[in-house]
Design brief:
two-stranded antiparallel ribbon, globular, TM_pro_TauE-like, cell membrane, membrane, transmembrane helix
Length: 285
């Protein structure tokens, strides 16, 4: 049965979520990511403090993260598009396969163990971090971008993995575009456009996938889940969304002003720390 928290603990949790929302919004603008790299580990600790059962804890983090990403990504993309940096042709080619991939990933979420979500996060986030830290100039290795069929296949893979990780796809599409030699600012702006394409069907899919799970935990009622529709926490969404959406345009402006290498190094180190946190959980569980 969940352990009741006193008012001070609840206020600290609320403050942590609001702060995470600000960081998420800034990162969404800076890197064209949805912010799942921040939201998922923060929510994981918060839901742990609320005694959410381990069997639903990770997918609840992922589903809530996807819901928060919807307004954050839209705000980020609008800010980047105002600078004329986004490649709308790539966004259009990826739109349908990305959505189909998200739906497939959401279906997997209904049956997959919690360890799968952690494992996917560790692998993809680590690969992204290594690229940011050590291979920022490796784009020419892959030559020209693939044709439409190849692009659609990549889009489907991005959709599946993003859905399982609870991210807006920015890390994956950033990695893909820069390895094919696209400028980093264009990769960031274009990746921001994928956020809502992934997050909207992903969040809906997680709501549906998690709907029957509450019955598996008799002690986890509506307010103890906590206040969730399926795998989307209304409390988490309500506390995270305002600050993340507010901060996203500021991050987009910084992306066009700050030294890019410094930002790449900082984000790469952060991703490695997050990956290490979940890897410890996998090895220990």
């Amino acid at each position: 049965m969940p352990i009741p928290l006193d008012l001070t603990q609840l206020l600290w949790l609320a403050a942590a979520l609001a702060a995470a929302g600000c960081i998420t919004g800034v990162l969404a603008g800076l890197f064209g990511v949805g912010g799942g790299a921040v939201l998922v580990p923060v929510l994981y600790e918060v839901f742990g403090a609320l005694q959410v059962p381990e069997g639903v804890r990770m997918p609840l983090c992922v589903g809530t993260s996807l819901a928060v990403i919807v307004p954050t990504s839209l705000r980020s993309f609008r800010a980047h598009r105002a600078h004329g940096a986004a490649d709308m042709e790539i966004v259009q080619v990826w739109a349908a396969p990305v959505v189909l991939g998200v739906l497939a990933g959401s279906a997997v979420a209904r049956f997959a163990p919690a360890a799968l979500f952690k494992g996917v996060f560790v692998v993809v986030a680590t690969a992204s971090a290594l690229r940011l830290l050590f291979f920022r100039n490796a784009g020419s290795v892959f030559g020209e971008m693939p044709g439409k069929l190849g692009m659609r296949l990549y889009g489907a893979v991005i959709g599946v993995l993003s859905s399982l990780m609870g991210i807006g796809g920015g890390q994956l599409s950033n990695l893909f575009m820069t390895l094919y030699g696209r400028p980093i600012h264009q990769a960031i702006a274009t990746s921001a456009g994928l956020g809502s394409l992934i997050a909207i069907p992903g969040a809906i899919g997680y709501m549906i996938a998690g709907w029957p799970k509450a019955a598996d935990f008799p002690g986890v009622a509506a307010l103890q889940f906590p206040a969730a529709i399926g795998y989307v926490s209304l409390i988490g969404f309500g506390l995270l969304m305002p600050t993340s959406a507010w901060a996203a345009p500021y991050g987009a402006r910084l992306a066009h002003r700050w030294p890019k290498r410094r930002l790449e190094l900082a984000f790469g180190i952060f991703l490695l720390l997050v990956s290490a946190r979940f890897l410890v959980g996998l090895l220990g569980g």
